[in-house]
Amino acid sequence: MPEPESQLYVFQSRQIGSSQFAEVVLGSYENRTVAVKQLPTITPTAEMLRQLNFLKSLDLSKCVQVFEVFGMPQCRGSVQIVMENMACGSVAQYLSTQESQSDAVTLLHLLIQRVAAGMAYLEGYQIAHTDLKTSNVLLDFNGIVKITDVGFRHMLTLASGFNQEWFPFDEWSAPELSHQPTAFSLKADVWSFGILCFVILTRGGHPYPGIPLKALPSYLANQMVPPNPAELGHQCSDFFYDLLVSCWRYNPQERPSFRSIINSLTMDNGKYENITSA
């Protein structure tokens, strides 16, 4: 029997997020307020739970801290992931606010550099994120930026009854995922990072204006890429756009590493100095 202070209390009425497979609610664990990610429709396997528990070992300065993972029969739902609560929400939520439309571009640069640093950390351990996008980058007070849902899509492939249709192609997806939805890799993450940078620099803009999702795979097969944010009235140097274009090379092996991306950002007129210490 666990001690009372280690018990998990879930506040089902206080939802703070949701996605295709999960809902996130506030809770209390070991006398702290936490975020509880619940997967009500997923039946986990032992290997899936083992890999979810691995998330507890990630660097909490770069990734959202995971305190505990509960699986059946420990919890009423199939899986509950107990995480630190990032009080300021996601970058996607931030970009939907009026505040984001007037914040200095240097703040946007800071977001980008901290995501790059987090992804370089994962790259150092050969860990692919598998679903990098603005809703999976979370914010807290004092400029804290952390990555969440690390490796989550890969872990879902280990669930009982997994189907590739769970991962529809979208605007964050690298081209190779259109014909092989589980072709997760750090190079696919690099593509998604480029899209994330575009969305941040355009303060929530769409990377493929006028292109319906069903036409996107053929559009990308013609090696088309998002426009320069500068052409849309936003600040983006030619040097930085060239870096984004390198992230969107059709051949995954021709895309840069995250360490190379950090080195390039540091060269961009000093705007991203000290990126690795962010």
TrEMBL record:
Domain Protein kinase: 10-267
SMART domains named in the record: S_TKc
Source superkingdom: Eukaryota
Entry GO MF terms: ATP binding; protein kinase activity
PROSITE patterns, sorted: PROTEIN_KINASE_DOM, PROTEIN_KINASE_ST
Nucleotide-binding among keywords: yes
Entry keyword set: ATP-binding, Nucleotide-binding
Name of the featured protein: Protein kinase domain-containing protein
Organism, scientific name: Mesocestoides corti (Flatworm)
Lineage: Eukaryota, Metazoa, Spiralia, Lophotrochozoa, Platyhelminthes
